[in-house]
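Continuing the series of single-chain predictions for the mutant panel. This is the parent chain; the variants come on the following pages.
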Amino acid sequence: MSAKVLERFPAGAPRGAWPAEEFAAARRAEGEPATVVMDLQSDAFLVVVPANDED
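Parent structure:
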């Protein structure tokens, strides 16, 4: 499965802040199947959607 990264957020957000989850929730409210994944190499949370074959 390939994915398109919509946005990346540093993992060091203040305690209780979930900017990646909030961004993904807003995309889901718009009808996009956004998911949050962790990129361990860059220590960041990525908001991704399934990539279209024509992209």
